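Quick start: what a row looks like.
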Amino acid sequence: MDELIKAIVAEYGADKTAASDLRALTPGGLWADDAPQQATGTYIILTMLGDAISHIMGSGAGHPYTTDGRVQFSICDPSSMLAAALAKPKLIALYEDNILTLDNHTVLYARRATNGLPIRDPDGEGCSIAIEFRYVLGNK
């Protein structure tokens, strides 16, 4: 699933309207696992949830297989729930049903598994919205 994470990051930086719309609303960037302490503005943390599950149909080389995994996108803002909420539909527009470019796999399925409710930071004004996506990859 490392290949999937790389493709998600590449898509965020792509020269597409949906990607630039999301980047405009998340000036703090997209980070894998943790955002740096100095991250400012709205940003996204990308986390692989658990281990991917692989399914092989048949035995031996050349048989079809799939890999099924979940990725969490956490849209975070240190001071504004509204800013995080405005980025949510742009993130969905960029990643849901998007056939990402992968070297060794084909994206068969890319859909939200949760709708992402806002959670306010109990220690401040910030909030985060965690949206899970389910990805199913197949061999090429």
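That is the whole record. The chain has one domain: 2-139. The domain at 2-139 is CATH 3.30.2000.10 (STM4215-like).
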